[in-house]
Amino acid sequence: MNSKEKIVLLLLAALNFTHILDFMIMMPLGNYLMPYFNISPKQFSMLVASYTFSAGIAGFLAAFFVDNFDRKRVLLFGYIGFLLGTLCCALAPTFTFLLLARIVAGIFGGLIGAQVLAIVADLIPYERRGMAMGIIMAAFSVASVFGVPFGLYMANIFNWHGPFFFVAGFGTLLVPFLMRYLPKMDSHMKSKENRINPLVLIKEVGRDPNQLLALGFTACLMLGHFMIIPFLNPYMEFNMGFSKFQTPMLYMAGGLATLITSPLIGRLADKVGKHKVYVIMAILSIFPIAILTNLPVMPFYMVLCIAGFWFVVSSGRTIPAQAMVSNVVPPERRGSFMSFNSSVQQIFVGLASVISGLIVVKNPDNSIQNYEITGYLGIFITLLTLVFVFKLDTRLKKRITNYELRR
Predict the structure, then answer these.
(1) Backbone angles phi and psi of 57, in degrees to 5
(2) Is the Cβ–Cβ distance between 351 and 49 less than 8 Å?
(3) Are 307 and 254 in contact (CB under 8 A)?
(4) What's this model's pTM, rounded to 2 decimal places?
(5) What are residue 161's phi and psi, to 5 degrees?
(6) Residue 369: phi, psi to the nearest 5?
(7) 361-369 long-range contacts, Cβ below 8 Å, gap at least 24?
(8) 224 touches 378 (CB < 8 A)
């Protein structure tokens, strides 16, 4: 990997850090926002889902036109709008204002994730893409190890507005570097012979088994994981009795662990196979889900170890999954497909939050009931993803073999 590739990947990882942190910080703020606004779990889940649903819709609509533009320009447009929406979140005085601000941030945020993945897929060959995705996904680890704990401590010391001010400020500092160092990304626009109009695009997605499998895989991956996240922090504080200064350590421990393991898992996926690594990580993730959602009384350091292991294997699933999904279409259509994929991600994250909000019930003392049910559903859906990954891997190998034979 040359120096230019490294600079681009580091900048995209930094951008991804702010984007992921903005999304992630809302979920552990449940034990702040529910008492502050006096809202129910259903209302809180709508705060989480409002961002993801609007991002999903925006990403879906973007799929019809993003391949007509320079990926760099689309990324910068979406990112600046996202930062303005996040600033509105920081200034929100009421529940309704915050809900609307999350929708605005989501509309622009829906453009970001797909463009980051499309840029990486365009720049980095498939045989090295696992490592590249590992670097990009390390942003999740940094957001966990630094961003979320720092944001939660800011909420403890100041108020819940603080984390959003931090994201907006850091992102603003990043914009000039993105403008300067990101290369022009318009090579996909030169392949006119394979371009299709928007109406045909969605029909082809529906007719292509590879793309349908990839989107179904993404949907299950998001649904299974984010059934657990929204009420983890309230459960740890209000049910298990851990303090607001302890619960951020869960994200710190998990982030530190995945910061180390994400690049290693990426290299392992390149070496032994994406689908094999995914299967191992998915099966291992079942055990910490079962424990964390049915947590017995135990010392906090043991909870940290379990949560850290869960972060590692959950991140370990995502790295090979993204690499496989990014390879189901040719480069000239990758931006559109990855926008579809990002849209599916966002919508099913929101759906997972809504389902969790319907299952979980808040007691008068702010403790919650039925959290273990979200764990059982998460385990079932995680096992279901194995069906998708086996079928997708078989089809990808067949397509690569046919391509080599034609050559």
Answers:
(1) -65, -45
(2) yes
(3) yes
(4) 0.75
(5) -70, -30
(6) -120, 160
(7) 361/41, 362/34, 362/40, 362/41, 365/238, 366/31, 366/34, 366/35, 366/234, 366/238, 367/238, 367/239, 368/41, 368/231, 368/234, 368/235, 368/238, 368/239
(8) yes
Q: 305-339 in b/e burial notation, b at 16+ Cβ within 10 A? A: ebbbbbbbbbbbbbbbbbbbbbbbbeebbbbbbbb
Distance of CA 330 to the CA centre of its chain: 23
Query: What's the confidence (pLDDT) of residue 405?
Result: 45
Write the CB contacts of 100 (distance below 8 Å, at least 6 apart in sequence): 88
Q: Please give the single-letter amino acid code of residue 387.
A: V
The answer to whether the beta carbons of residues 259 and 146 sit under 8 Å apart is: no
Angle between helices 162-181 and 3-26 (to 10 degrees): 160
pLDDT at residue number 131 = 72
Residue 368: beta bridge partners? 362
Residue 17: which of 116, 199, 142, 154 has the closest Cα? Answer: 142
Q: Output the CA torsion 135→77→221→335 (10° steps).
A: -90
pLDDT in tens, 171-214: 999 999 888 888 777 665 665 555 555 567 677 777 888 888 89
As given in the structure block, the two tokens for residue 47 are 């705060």
CB-based contact 49:348 (threshold 8 Å) = no
- Distance (Å, whole) CA 407 – CA 402: 9
Give the CA angle between residues 318, 321, 322 to the nearest 5°: 85
What confidence category does residue 140 fall into, taking pLDDT thresholds of 50, 70 and 90? low
Q: 345-361 in b/e burial notation, b at 16+ Cβ within 10 A?
A: bbbbbbbbbbbbbebbe
Average pLDDT over residues 92-96: 91
Between 27 and 214, where is the model more confident?
214
HSE-CB at 164 with a 13 A cutoff on CA atoms is: 22
Residue in 147, 68, 171, 61 with CA at minimum distance from that of residue 110 = 61
Beta-carbon count within 10 A of 130 CB:
25
Query: Domains of the chain, with CATH numbers?
Result: 3-183+197-406 (1.20.1250.20)
